[in-house]
Amino acid sequence: MNKLIVFLNRHKVVTFLFGGLYFLLTVLLHLEVSKISVWFQSKLSTSVYNNMLGIIGLVIISFFSIYLLNRTRKEDDRKFKILCLALTITLVVISFNTLLSINIEYIHFFQYAVLAIPVFAMTLKFGETVFWITLLGALDEAYQYFILVPDFEYFDFNDVILNLIGGGIGVILILTTLSRLQLQGLCCKRPSEKWFRSKVIIISVVLLLGLLILYSAGYVHFYPVPDSTGASILLRREPAPSTFWNSVAWGKTYHILHPIEGMVLAGILVGFYSFIDFRNRKKI
Length: 284
Known about the structure:
With 284 residues, the protein is mainly alpha-helical. It contains 11 helices and 4 strands. The longest helix is centred in the first third of the chain and has 26 residues, at 46-71.
């Protein structure tokens, strides 16, 4: 992993082009992937298909965890790496049981875990990597909501969080497979900066202020309301759900995140992964 990150960091143009192409393919191939999923569902019942995917996901998570635990066995910073791994796996398990309406949606984890590698090679920061992954994931969902499936009832913040967790899986893979010396050699290439000068903080503040201005001016609404007919951006085309949990015929129960829930949760999780950078600067 260290050689790969070093190579990608030294060839930023190649890394940018590769990462951009990969992201575009991820965004533009949604319909094709959906067709494959629908084909499998037609051959199996949705319940069987969903349970099969759940078992496959559990096996992958188990092997992933065992592999990374083994990689940290001789590390002097083993406890912290195990803690980060455990928290990330916990996020995966919780999202499995609360955010997925059908288990095929865990493909978000794999898609954005891979994307985290070139993004980290460009930023050399764990928190900033997850932040950019979150923004790219939100752009992906915006494309689906406004262009690809314009009759879909809501902007899917559930998928934004799944994309974020996928980015988290990617950075934890990098964190646990690199030694402290390798991290020192990489991260010391980037000068330390005050927290308030961080790109994550600056861009987040700009985006939040922009959202508040648009919301106050009536150009953005979360749900349909009598005075939202002129809203340019409506994040949900149907009224707010009357219940916290939603159920589907194949047995899954899940929660649809309110936009504010999604944004707050994204901020907390980006903050968690940013703490890894803060701690590494103190330890290295």
